[in-house]
Description:
Elements: H1 48-57, H2 69-82, H3 84-101, H4 110-119, H5 125-139
Amino acid sequence: MHESDFIPVVVFDDDPQPLPPHTMAAARPPGRPRPDPSSHPGMNLVDVEHAWAYWNSLGSINGCDIRSGIDVVRAFRAAALQSSAGVVAFATAYRQLFDKSGERPRALDAELKKIAASALSSLGPEDREVVEWLLRSGNSQ
């Protein structure tokens, strides 16, 4: 690591409020490119485990959580188009992002929306709930 990799943060004792969560993506050090999953040999984002590994790796880049909605799409869309488990992973990652940063799902494309809706009947109650949340939230834009 280099000294230029750190972003100075000033904390005042009389101001215990943390930074707003939506500033996570802005905390990436300048000049540092966003990791590209296609540049990692063996990274197959159709595989839900690989998608989660990529997603989780973005949660700590030089100590910063740089995840955003586009990263949900990059990490989980291929898996979501292939399986119900991928749909649940896509929805769960977006829910994590929303709970942490307040960022709502981007509008879902027609193919993803259709596959997510068709997966509902095969899901258990908790998984169905998060996918229904995704469909509601992704359609409200």
